[in-house]
Write a structure and sequence with these properties.
InterPro entries: FN3_dom, FN3_sf, Ig-like_fold, Interferon/interleukin_rcp_dom, Type-II_Cytokine-TF_Rcpt. One of its GO terms (molecular function) is cytokine receptor activity. Keywords: Receptor. It comes from Spheniscus mendiculus (Galapagos penguin). Helices cover about 0% and strands about 50% of the residues. Strands 3, 4, 6, 7 and 8 form a 5-stranded antiparallel β-sheet that branches. Strands 11, 12, 14, 15 and 16 form a 5-stranded antiparallel β-sheet that branches. The model has no long low-confidence stretch (mean pLDDT about 95). With about 200 residues, the chain is an all-beta fold. The longest helix is centred in the middle third of the chain and has 4 residues, at about 100-105.
Length: about 200
């Protein structure tokens, strides 16, 4: 059909970032300003069956979050995207295969620190999509006196558990930082979060 084809999306990448699986791309060179994109995915369980992603049909954005669309977190999937403008469309461009469980990239948790008289209660919250809440995410927590290299480590704390630290013997400025961890085939860890520092047993 003598239609001019649209330039295809470029740099199509299935990216695991901060607990999510996201397809990203950049507009093809010379794309018209009204261009939109449509995404589909296929799973290695059913090759050659490209499945529609309702929330990524005719979108203006150059990314599509596939996390809770994935039918199985233990099977490799890939996605593809095409550009559409009026009657014109580009060819589909495919990503590489990724598996959520093996390839997930962790973000540091956010620490909630509650200082009581001789105790600190710490818990960590994770930016998780609801569909992956059931995975056994953990976190490691470090506590140290500001300026000191000597860190007390609390490792492998279940995600929903609060750590209670007795601060009776501690005096001064203490800092806390945590990282997410996850046991798949190997052990995965995020970077540590930005430290949260608190003044303990401060007289005056």
């Amino acid at each position: 059909s003598g239609h001019v084809q649209l330039p295809p999306p470029q740099n199509v990448t299935l990216l695991s970032k901060d607990f999510d699986m996201i397809l990203t791309w950049t507009p093809g060179e010379g794309s018209p300003p009204d261009v939109t994109y449509t995404v589909r995915y296929e799973s290695q369980e059913r090759m050659d069956k490209w499945i529609k992603v309702p929330h990524c049909k005719n979108i203006r954005s150059t990314s599509c979050n596939l996390t809770c669309v994935l039918p199985n977190f233990f099977v490799k999937v890939r996605a593809r995207v095409k550009a559409v403008s009026g009657r014109f469309q580009s060819p589909w461009v495919e990503s590489q295969f990724k598996e959520y469980y093996l390839d997930v990239e962790l973000a540091p948790p956010v620490l909630n620190v509650n200082v009581k008289k001789n105790l600190i209660h710490v818990n960590a919250s994770f930016p998780l999509a609801t569909c992956v809440e059931s995975f056994s995410w953990m976190y490691d927590l470090n506590l140290w006196e500001a300026g000191s290299k000597d860190k007390k480590q609390y490792e492998g704390i279940f995600r929903k558990n609060t750590v209670t630290i007795d601060t009776t013997a501690l005096r001064g400025n203490y800092c806390l930082s945590a990282r997410s961890s996850f046991q798949s085939i190997d052990f995965k860890r995020s970077k540590f979060s930005q430290p949260v520092c608190v003044l303990l047993n401060h007289k005056g």
